[in-house]
């Protein structure tokens, strides 16, 4: 795998994978976009999610004033609205309970109280509603 920051190229990665990466990183407010591309160029994976939601650390001030949902900037030539629609339907199909469980399982050692993790989950649920509008601007 080659990081796009180190020369990896998205040109041959299937468009549905690129659409999923764009939607995922838009949803969770990726600040430090990183994608690995397989050596044969047929697979792309979103990685390095440390700068998501509230930046490089649990910045509670950023969560009190969440930024608007804006699409990440990744090469996306050829992705049409119908492909994004399929990916957005997949995002909407994730149950609220599964999202809440994901945040509930964040280890306490990472510095997030239960109240803070609940706030993160709430913001993620709110952002999910706005992803479709943001992606429609691409």
Concise synopsis of the structure shown:
With about 140 residues, the protein is mainly alpha-helical.
Description:
The protein has five helices and three strands. The chain has 138 residues and is mainly α. The protein has one domain (2-136). The chain has a three-stranded antiparallel β-sheet with strand order 1-2-3, with helices on one face. Helix 1 crosses helix 3 (81-93), helix 3 (81-93) runs antiparallel to helix 5 and helix 4 packs across helix 5. The protein is globular. 18% of the residues are buried.
Write the layout of secondary structure elements.
Blueprint: E1 2-3, H1 15-27, E2 35-37, E3 44-46, H2 60-64, H3 81-93, H4 96-104, H5 114-136
Antiparallel strand pairs: 1-2, 2-3
Helix pairs in contact: 1-3, 1-5, 3-5, 4-5
Q: Gyration radius, to the nearest Å?
A: 15 Å
Tally of strands: 3
Widest sheet, order of strands? 1-2-3
Distance between termini?
27 Å
Structure classification: mainly alpha
pLDDT average, as an integer?
Answer: 84
Percent range for β-strand residues: 5-15%
The biggest beta sheet is recorded as:
3 strands, antiparallel
Elements, N to C (H/E): EHEEHHHH
Shape: globular
Please give the domain count.
1
